[in-house]
């Protein structure tokens, strides 16, 4: 799998998303709400930059990362337990 294009996201969210995708390390409330597909919680947690960039998160998740790492709370929990793309074998 090719490396995701994290530059599609706001600069201050690129590292948290990379940690999530590659290692299954949870980010803040906004990021986790986006990953769990919880729009109302994401809107409530978004800073002024992220609220304007929600569409970019949708494009990024759909086009750049494995579908197993987002979409529901159950998928997010399973991804964290797996340790992301790299797994726990580091």
* Whole-number mean pLDDT: 95
Number of helices: 6
Report the major sheet. none
Would you tell me the structural class of the helices and strands? mainly alpha
Choose one word for the global shape.
globular
What's the layout of helices and strands?
Blueprint: H1 11-23, H2 29-35, H3 39-45, H4 48-52, H5 54-64, H6 73-82
Explain this structure to me?
The model has no long low-confidence stretch (mean pLDDT 95). The protein is globular and about 35 Å long. The relative contact order is 0.20. It has 90 residues and is mainly α. It contains six helices and no strands.
Give a quick rundown of the structure.
With 90 residues, the protein is an all-alpha fold. It contains 6 helices and no strands.
What labels describe this entry?
globular; single chain; mainly alpha; 90 residues
